[in-house]
């Protein structure tokens, strides 16, 4: 092959010359899309992290509320028991309690 040109080498070079600009053009199109997608994913991760944090705070609040409610006494439904509970806790002043008792009669 003295001085002969290899046909397959010329085809390869020709294909490379044609493909490189197309590949670079495709890269130029994909790069901003990739950056935008990464930004959206990062923002979504932040939103999910905030949601999980809010949910955990709500669950802790509910646990505290359940503990608090478990320690609460049941409010009596009968009027006489309610009056006794008021007296036991001394919620009402002496001037209000007789008025309340008068309304019961």
Q: How would you summarize what this structure contains?
A:
The chain has 105 residues and is an all-alpha fold. Helix content is 80%, strand content 0%. It has helices at 7-70, 79-89, 96-104.
Number of domains: 2
State the end-to-end distance: 126 Å
- State the oligomer: single chain
Give the low-confidence spans: none
Determine the structural class based on helices, strands and strand pairing: mainly alpha
User: What is the radius of gyration?
Assistant: 40 Å
Q: What is the 3D shape?
A: rod-shaped
Q: Give the beta-strand count.
A: 0
The main sheet comes to:
none
Q: Overall mean pLDDT score?
A: 80
Strand content: under 5%
Topology as a string of helices (H) and strands (E): HHH
What is the secondary structure topology, with strand pairs?
Elements: H1 7-70, H2 79-89, H3 96-104
Account of the 3D structure:
This protein has three helices and no strands. The chain is an all-alpha fold and 105 residues long. The chain has two domains: 1-72; 73-105, no CATH class. The longest helix has 64 residues, at 7-70. The model has no long low-confidence stretch (mean pLDDT 80).
